[in-house]
Automatic annotation (TrEMBL):
Source organism: Hufsiella ginkgonis
Name under which the protein is recorded: ROK family protein
Family: Belongs to the ROK (NagC/XylR) family.
PANTHER family, per database record: BIFUNCTIONAL UDP-N-ACETYLGLUCOSAMINE 2-EPIMERASE_N-ACETYLMANNOSAMINE KINASE (PTHR18964:SF149), ROK (REPRESSOR, ORF, KINASE) FAMILY (PTHR18964)
Length: 290
């Protein structure tokens, strides 16, 4: 059983989600799904204890000792060193070896812990068992409080770290994240909102159309640059903003398909499961498709 199942965990700024992943069937076991709130401003010991508790709850009484973590950067994922600083989260872990700390907490060798970027894990998961399954090449873009980007090629997804790409006189994340919607809504006289969900509740249909049209134009321009350098078969859009894709889809497709008509743009199908699956697929036995 231990060779077929591993533990996948997705670490965010306010939570950890963990579950068992069935590598043979390319799916998460929903009955094992655990969500725990995390105080990312707490001491290192408290953070690691919370992560460890969630992982142990997902594991239950099963004899499983391989763990995969999907985590935002910057992190030296191979060595396990946290490099996050100045982001108001996980500051107390800066410079520490997460693999060693978590291995001690769980009572397993640090070699049994795999870490990867959350955007890369998201894309790997969608290829492993989601909307990009069996694609030979793909790019992934996560749209939320920040901008994540990843490329899938030669059987593995890797982070592209394009959030700070120059765009519109600033960086592209300023135009493709929640804070852009908040800022643009206020600029256009729509008042203060906290995010896209609240924005969509406003009664001014014309305002909403303008904001989402502008966002779609911005995203289309970014995708054209991303696709030009990678030439993928599939583009996968994820993150909370992608749930509103129908509102900005037209402008995205008009730009992308005019130049790359064979590239398929799809919204993620696995939700939070994608990063868990993607990180866990690292343990897929060699010789089998990831």
């Amino acid at each position: 059983m231990s060779q077929q199942y591993v533990i996948g965990a997705d670490i965010g700024g306010t939570h950890i989600t963990a579950a068992l992943v069935d590598l043979a069937r390319h799916r998460m076991l929903p009955e094992t799904l655990i969500r725990e709130k995390v105080d990312s401003g707490a001491a290192a010991t408290a953070i690691i204890e919370t992560w460890g508790r969630a992982i142990r709850l997902a594991k239950g009484s099963r004899s499983i000792h391989q763990v995969s973590l999907a985590m935002p950067g910057p992190v030296d994922y191979e060595q396990g060193i946290c490099l996050i600083r100045g982001q108001e989260k996980y500051e107390q872990l800066y410079g520490m070896n997460i693999k060693h700390l978590l291995a001690d907490e769980l009572g397993i060798p640090s070699a049994n812990i795999f870490m990867d970027n959350d955007a890369a894990s998201f894309l790997q998961g969608e290829v492993f068992g989601g909307v990009a399954k069996d694609a030979r090449s793909a790019i992934g873009v996560t749209l939320g409080t920040g901008l994540g980007s990843a490329l899938y090629a030669d059987g593995r997804a890797t982070s592209c770290d394009l959030w700070n790409m120059p765009f519109g006189g600033h960086i592209v994340e300023d135009y493709l994240s929640t804070r852009w919607f908040v800022k643009r809504c206020k600029e256009l006289g729509g008042g203060s909102v906290t995010g896209v969900s609240e924005l969509k509740m406003l009664p001014n249909a014309k305002l909403l159309e303008q904001i989402f049209d502008e966002f779609g134009t911005n995203l289309g321009k970014f995708l054209l640059a991303f696709i030009a350098g990678t030439l993928p078969e599939v583009v996968v859009l994820g993150g909370n903003i992608s749930r509103s894709y129908a509102l900005f889809k037209e402008n995205v497709l008009r730009q992308v398909q005019s130049i790359y008509p064979t590239v398929s743009i799809r919204t993620a199908g696995l939700g939070e499961e994608a990063a868990l699956l993607g990180a866990a697929s690292h343990w897929k036995p060699s010789g089998q498709a990831r």
